[in-house]
Amino acid sequence: MQRKQEMMTIVAQKQLAPRIFQLDLQGELVKEMTRPGQFVHIKVPRADLLLRRPISINQIDHSNETCRLIYRVEGSGTEVFATMKAGEQLDILGPLGNGFDVTTVAAGQTAFIVGGGIGIPPLYELSKQLNEKGVKVIHFLGYASKEVAYYQQEFMALGETHFATDDGSFGAHGNVGRLLSEVLAKGRIPDAVYACGANGMLKAIDYLFPTHPHVYLSLEERMACGIGACYACVCHKKGDTTGAKSVKVCDEGPIFKASEVIL
Ligand code: FES
Question: Is the pTM here over 0.85, yes or no?
Fold first, then answer.
Protein backbone atom coordinates (compact mmCIF):
# COMPACT_ATOMS: atom_id res chain seq x y z
CA MET A 1 0.00 0.00 0.00
CA GLN A 2 1.45 3.27 -1.07
CA ARG A 3 0.24 6.84 -0.67
CA LYS A 4 -0.40 8.52 -4.05
CA GLN A 5 -1.84 11.69 -5.48
CA GLU A 6 -4.13 11.42 -8.47
CA MET A 7 -6.81 13.31 -10.36
CA MET A 8 -9.66 10.85 -9.87
CA THR A 9 -12.85 10.99 -11.91
CA ILE A 10 -16.28 11.30 -10.35
CA VAL A 11 -18.47 8.50 -11.72
CA ALA A 12 -21.56 9.27 -9.65
CA GLN A 13 -22.80 11.48 -6.86
CA LYS A 14 -26.05 11.03 -4.96
CA GLN A 15 -27.66 12.67 -1.94
CA LEU A 16 -28.58 10.12 0.77
CA ALA A 17 -30.11 12.42 3.39
CA PRO A 18 -30.09 16.15 4.22
CA ARG A 19 -26.43 17.25 3.91
CA ILE A 20 -25.21 13.63 3.43
CA PHE A 21 -23.76 12.72 0.03
CA GLN A 22 -22.33 9.60 -1.58
CA LEU A 23 -19.51 10.15 -4.06
CA ASP A 24 -18.06 7.44 -6.33
CA LEU A 25 -14.57 7.99 -7.71
CA GLN A 26 -12.56 6.07 -10.27
CA GLY A 27 -8.79 5.91 -10.66
CA GLU A 28 -5.65 3.85 -10.24
CA LEU A 29 -5.29 5.02 -6.65
CA VAL A 30 -8.00 2.48 -5.73
CA LYS A 31 -5.36 -0.26 -6.23
CA GLU A 32 -3.62 1.08 -3.11
CA MET A 33 -6.78 0.89 -0.97
CA THR A 34 -6.89 -2.32 1.04
CA ARG A 35 -7.54 -1.75 4.73
CA PRO A 36 -10.94 -0.51 5.92
CA GLY A 37 -10.94 2.68 7.98
CA GLN A 38 -8.44 4.61 5.87
CA PHE A 39 -9.26 8.02 4.41
CA VAL A 40 -8.43 10.26 1.47
CA HIS A 41 -7.48 13.91 1.55
CA ILE A 42 -9.29 15.94 -1.09
CA LYS A 43 -8.26 19.28 -2.58
CA VAL A 44 -11.19 21.66 -2.91
CA PRO A 45 -11.30 22.93 -6.51
CA ARG A 46 -11.47 26.57 -5.40
CA ALA A 47 -8.36 28.73 -5.16
CA ASP A 48 -9.22 30.38 -1.83
CA LEU A 49 -9.72 27.09 0.02
CA LEU A 50 -6.23 25.82 0.63
CA LEU A 51 -6.66 22.96 3.07
CA ARG A 52 -7.57 19.54 1.81
CA ARG A 53 -10.62 17.85 3.39
CA PRO A 54 -10.24 14.38 4.96
CA ILE A 55 -13.03 11.95 4.08
CA SER A 56 -13.14 8.27 5.05
CA ILE A 57 -13.43 5.51 2.47
CA ASN A 58 -16.85 3.83 2.63
CA GLN A 59 -16.16 1.00 0.20
CA ILE A 60 -13.57 -0.24 -2.26
CA ASP A 61 -14.27 -1.97 -5.59
CA HIS A 62 -11.00 -3.20 -7.07
CA SER A 63 -12.67 -4.82 -10.11
CA ASN A 64 -13.95 -1.44 -11.37
CA GLU A 65 -11.16 0.65 -9.78
CA THR A 66 -13.77 2.66 -7.91
CA CYS A 67 -14.23 3.71 -4.32
CA ARG A 68 -17.16 5.31 -2.55
CA LEU A 69 -16.96 8.15 -0.04
CA ILE A 70 -19.85 9.32 2.13
CA TYR A 71 -19.55 12.80 3.58
CA ARG A 72 -21.62 15.43 5.33
CA VAL A 73 -21.68 19.02 4.13
CA GLU A 74 -20.06 20.91 7.02
CA GLY A 75 -18.65 24.07 5.44
CA SER A 76 -17.48 25.72 2.26
CA GLY A 77 -15.18 22.86 1.14
CA THR A 78 -17.75 20.10 1.34
CA GLU A 79 -20.35 22.50 -0.12
CA VAL A 80 -18.21 22.65 -3.25
CA PHE A 81 -17.92 18.83 -3.40
CA ALA A 82 -21.72 18.56 -3.22
CA THR A 83 -22.14 20.61 -6.41
CA MET A 84 -19.86 18.37 -8.48
CA LYS A 85 -21.12 16.02 -11.18
CA ALA A 86 -20.10 12.78 -12.90
CA GLY A 87 -17.21 13.34 -15.32
CA GLU A 88 -15.54 16.05 -13.23
CA GLN A 89 -12.26 15.36 -11.47
CA LEU A 90 -10.93 15.78 -7.94
CA ASP A 91 -7.33 15.90 -6.72
CA ILE A 92 -7.08 13.03 -4.24
CA LEU A 93 -4.22 12.18 -1.87
CA GLY A 94 -4.39 8.75 -0.28
CA PRO A 95 -4.99 6.29 1.06
CA LEU A 96 -4.03 7.79 4.43
CA GLY A 97 -4.09 6.47 7.99
CA ASN A 98 -3.55 3.02 9.41
CA GLY A 99 -6.97 1.40 8.94
CA PHE A 100 -8.71 -1.18 11.15
CA ASP A 101 -6.85 -4.33 12.08
CA VAL A 102 -9.06 -7.20 10.88
CA THR A 103 -6.49 -9.90 11.65
CA THR A 104 -7.36 -10.14 15.34
CA VAL A 105 -10.69 -11.89 14.68
CA ALA A 106 -11.08 -15.25 12.96
CA ALA A 107 -13.93 -17.07 11.21
CA GLY A 108 -16.66 -17.98 13.68
CA GLN A 109 -15.77 -15.20 16.13
CA THR A 110 -17.98 -12.17 16.78
CA ALA A 111 -17.21 -8.49 16.21
CA PHE A 112 -19.30 -5.58 17.46
CA ILE A 113 -19.25 -2.69 14.98
CA VAL A 114 -20.36 0.59 16.52
CA GLY A 115 -20.93 3.81 14.61
CA GLY A 116 -22.45 7.21 15.16
CA GLY A 117 -23.51 9.88 12.65
CA ILE A 118 -20.91 10.59 10.02
CA GLY A 119 -18.58 8.05 11.71
CA ILE A 120 -20.65 5.24 10.19
CA PRO A 121 -19.38 5.16 6.54
CA PRO A 122 -15.94 3.50 6.98
CA LEU A 123 -17.54 0.74 9.06
CA TYR A 124 -19.30 -0.58 5.95
CA GLU A 125 -16.09 -1.70 4.22
CA LEU A 126 -14.90 -3.09 7.57
CA SER A 127 -18.08 -5.15 8.00
CA LYS A 128 -17.84 -6.38 4.39
CA GLN A 129 -14.25 -7.58 4.89
CA LEU A 130 -15.06 -9.25 8.22
CA ASN A 131 -18.03 -10.99 6.57
CA GLU A 132 -15.77 -12.29 3.82
CA LYS A 133 -13.55 -13.80 6.55
CA GLY A 134 -16.52 -15.57 8.15
CA VAL A 135 -16.63 -13.30 11.22
CA LYS A 136 -20.10 -12.75 12.70
CA VAL A 137 -20.74 -9.01 12.76
CA ILE A 138 -23.27 -7.20 14.94
CA HIS A 139 -23.84 -3.52 14.12
CA PHE A 140 -24.90 -0.76 16.52
CA LEU A 141 -25.65 2.43 14.60
CA GLY A 142 -26.72 5.75 16.02
CA TYR A 143 -28.13 8.82 14.24
CA ALA A 144 -29.51 12.15 15.37
CA SER A 145 -32.93 11.36 13.85
CA LYS A 146 -34.69 9.24 11.21
CA GLU A 147 -34.36 12.10 8.72
CA VAL A 148 -30.56 11.89 8.69
CA ALA A 149 -30.30 8.08 8.87
CA TYR A 150 -28.69 6.35 5.88
CA TYR A 151 -27.23 2.97 4.88
CA GLN A 152 -29.57 0.97 7.11
CA GLN A 153 -30.40 -1.67 4.45
CA GLU A 154 -26.74 -2.03 3.46
CA PHE A 155 -25.66 -2.86 7.02
CA MET A 156 -28.67 -5.13 7.61
CA ALA A 157 -27.63 -7.16 4.56
CA LEU A 158 -24.31 -7.91 6.27
CA GLY A 159 -25.57 -8.95 9.72
CA GLU A 160 -27.65 -8.23 12.80
CA THR A 161 -28.12 -4.46 13.13
CA HIS A 162 -29.42 -2.37 16.03
CA PHE A 163 -30.39 1.27 15.53
CA ALA A 164 -30.79 4.20 17.90
CA THR A 165 -31.70 7.85 17.38
CA ASP A 166 -31.23 10.78 19.73
CA ASP A 167 -34.87 11.84 19.30
CA GLY A 168 -36.37 8.31 19.21
CA SER A 169 -37.76 8.77 15.67
CA PHE A 170 -36.14 5.52 14.47
CA GLY A 171 -34.89 2.49 16.44
CA ALA A 172 -34.25 2.79 20.17
CA HIS A 173 -34.52 6.20 21.83
CA GLY A 174 -31.08 7.33 23.01
CA ASN A 175 -27.51 6.68 22.05
CA VAL A 176 -25.67 3.58 20.89
CA GLY A 177 -23.94 3.28 24.28
CA ARG A 178 -27.32 2.38 25.76
CA LEU A 179 -27.96 -0.20 23.02
CA LEU A 180 -24.58 -1.77 23.72
CA SER A 181 -25.20 -1.90 27.48
CA GLU A 182 -28.46 -3.78 26.89
CA VAL A 183 -26.78 -6.38 24.69
CA LEU A 184 -23.86 -6.78 27.09
CA ALA A 185 -26.30 -7.25 29.98
CA LYS A 186 -27.65 -10.30 28.11
CA GLY A 187 -24.17 -11.81 28.32
CA ARG A 188 -23.16 -11.35 24.69
CA ILE A 189 -19.43 -10.59 24.78
CA PRO A 190 -17.65 -9.84 21.47
CA ASP A 191 -14.17 -11.02 20.47
CA ALA A 192 -13.45 -7.54 19.08
CA VAL A 193 -15.09 -4.12 19.05
CA TYR A 194 -14.62 -1.60 16.24
CA ALA A 195 -16.00 1.91 16.54
CA CYS A 196 -16.08 5.24 14.74
CA GLY A 197 -17.98 8.31 15.83
CA ALA A 198 -17.95 11.38 18.03
CA ASN A 199 -15.75 11.51 21.11
CA GLY A 200 -18.66 11.01 23.55
CA MET A 201 -19.58 7.74 21.86
CA LEU A 202 -15.97 6.51 21.92
CA LYS A 203 -15.72 7.38 25.62
CA ALA A 204 -18.85 5.31 26.31
CA ILE A 205 -17.26 2.32 24.56
CA ASP A 206 -14.02 2.78 26.49
CA TYR A 207 -16.09 2.77 29.69
CA LEU A 208 -18.08 -0.35 28.73
CA PHE A 209 -15.00 -2.43 27.79
CA PRO A 210 -12.36 -1.33 30.33
CA THR A 211 -10.15 -4.42 30.04
CA HIS A 212 -11.10 -5.91 26.66
CA PRO A 213 -7.87 -6.40 24.64
CA HIS A 214 -9.40 -5.82 21.20
CA VAL A 215 -11.29 -2.53 21.20
CA TYR A 216 -10.38 -0.35 18.22
CA LEU A 217 -11.51 3.28 18.04
CA SER A 218 -11.35 5.55 15.01
CA LEU A 219 -10.81 9.11 16.22
CA GLU A 220 -12.37 12.13 14.55
CA GLU A 221 -9.81 14.91 14.84
CA ARG A 222 -9.51 18.15 12.95
CA MET A 223 -6.77 17.69 10.39
CA ALA A 224 -4.65 19.99 8.29
CA CYS A 225 -1.80 18.32 6.38
CA GLY A 226 -3.10 14.75 6.86
CA ILE A 227 0.37 13.25 6.48
CA GLY A 228 1.98 13.72 9.89
CA ALA A 229 3.81 16.99 9.17
CA CYS A 230 1.93 19.73 11.05
CA TYR A 231 0.86 18.32 14.47
CA ALA A 232 -2.65 19.77 14.11
CA CYS A 233 -4.22 16.46 15.11
CA VAL A 234 -2.34 15.24 18.17
CA CYS A 235 -3.94 13.40 21.09
CA HIS A 236 -2.33 12.21 24.31
CA LYS A 237 -1.31 8.72 25.31
CA LYS A 238 -2.79 6.84 28.25
CA GLY A 239 -0.49 6.16 31.18
CA ASP A 240 1.81 9.07 30.40
CA THR A 241 2.31 10.92 33.68
CA THR A 242 4.33 13.69 32.01
CA GLY A 243 1.48 14.60 29.62
CA ALA A 244 4.12 15.09 26.96
CA LYS A 245 3.65 11.92 24.91
CA SER A 246 1.30 12.33 22.01
CA VAL A 247 0.29 10.59 18.81
CA LYS A 248 -0.73 12.07 15.48
CA VAL A 249 -4.24 10.94 14.56
CA CYS A 250 -3.75 11.38 10.80
CA ASP A 251 -0.54 9.44 10.56
CA GLU A 252 -0.33 7.00 13.48
CA GLY A 253 -4.17 6.66 13.57
CA PRO A 254 -6.96 7.43 13.02
CA ILE A 255 -7.49 4.02 14.62
CA PHE A 256 -6.05 3.27 18.04
CA LYS A 257 -6.61 0.59 20.64
CA ALA A 258 -8.83 1.98 23.40
CA SER A 259 -6.03 1.24 25.88
CA GLU A 260 -3.59 3.53 24.03
CA VAL A 261 -5.11 7.02 23.93
CA ILE A 262 -6.87 9.57 26.11
CA LEU A 263 -10.18 10.51 24.56
FE1 FES B 1 -0.88 17.41 10.15
FE2 FES B 1 -1.95 15.33 11.47
S3 FES B 1 -2.97 16.79 10.25
S4 FES B 1 0.08 16.07 11.52
Answer: yes
